């Protein structure tokens, strides 16, 4: 089977499509990967070059994503590029990870995966419906059109699927396909240091990494994530070491995949500070690295982690501080939580299960198209 797959260079969609692409190639499928959102960084390009498989091709573009400023002309060019690729390559399925290209179902069966969206982001971050602006009206119409015209819809959590239906008034079934990571990429057996880590875009208020600045605990707190917004000038603290003897908050800035794996492997506690998290790849990577999870009490994180994590009320720095202090003083509980998160991650959220689920969806779409 030949899958034409879209990705973007900005967030977790890239990691998701890395795992999906590698898994499909291992299973003998052909993949053509097309990236949008800006030029790839050195790590992303190195991964592409490492995929030395006869069934793999990739196309890199700088075309803007639908949530970026003034994307209209770029979206038209992106759609035309995909139409040209469909005509030339004749893929069995087009799997899009942006909303703008649902209309391409007139050329090939289209699976659209909705990973996140601006309306649910705004409501989660600001506690109210997004304002009626011309830009958001255009965005809403674009997303609704994609959801209505794609052949099949998917989302990484049941919560995200509900949000897409409710925010955009789309009465269609949406398949829940949880994200997955390869356990062998992470080191769960390394001795841990008593420190806490959160990973997230420092410029994104949905990640709310600055919550850690309100926390005082007798061990280091680390924040790893991109400091610069791809769409606007946003001030965030510069990378720094934690002040004082073994305590305080340190900003590490953007880390490579290898650097993140090292951080996870030596960290005892992972903290999710988000107030918006449609899935959360970082907690999954931390769990696969043997970290105990302390998570913002969001519906998605409850859905994914159940009793394998400690939850604190979202945005509540005092509650987070209490949870961290309690775990810091109780290494046995910390180890137990880590073991439960690791077991849940390895049984429910592996790349292998994610790829197999997608493979079934692709086969069903291709079969219907052939009838």
Could you provide a short overview of the structure?
By secondary structure, this protein is of the alpha/beta class.
Can you give a write-up of this model?
The protein has two domains: 2-180 and 350-370, Rossmann fold; 183-348, Rossmann fold, CATH 3.40.50. The protein has helices spanning 12-26, 42-50, 72-89, 118-126, 134-149, 158-168, 257-265, 281-288, 299-305, 317-328, 331-348, 351-370, and strands at residues 2-8, 30-36, 56-60, 93-96, 110-113, 152-155, 175-176, 193-199, 220-224, 248-253, 267-272, 292-296, 310-312. It is α/β, with parallel strands linked by helices and 371 residues long. The strands form two sheets. It has a seven-stranded parallel sheet with strand order 3-2-1-4-5-6-7, sandwiched between helices. The chain has a six-stranded parallel sheet with strand order 10-9-8-11-12-13, with helices on both faces. The chain is globular.
Given helix and strand content, the structural type is: alpha/beta
Strand percentage: 15-25%
Individual helix count = 12
Which architecture of the largest domain does the CATH hierarchy give at level 2?
A: 3-Layer(aba) Sandwich
Task: Say what the CATH topology of the largest domain is.
Answer: Rossmann fold
Alpha carbon gap, first and last residue = 16 Å
Number of spatially distinct domains: 2
CATH superfamily label of the largest domain: Glycogen Phosphorylase B
Radius of gyration: 20 Å
The CATH C-level name of the largest domain is Alpha Beta
SSE order, one letter for each helix or strand:
EHEHEHEEHHEHEEEEHEHEHEHHH
| Sheet having the most strands | 7 strands, parallel
Count all strands and give the number: 13
| Mean of all residue-level pLDDT scores | 92
Helix content: 40-55%
Shape: globular
pLDDT under 50 segments (min length 5)? 231-240
Identify the strand order in the major beta sheet: 3-2-1-4-5-6-7
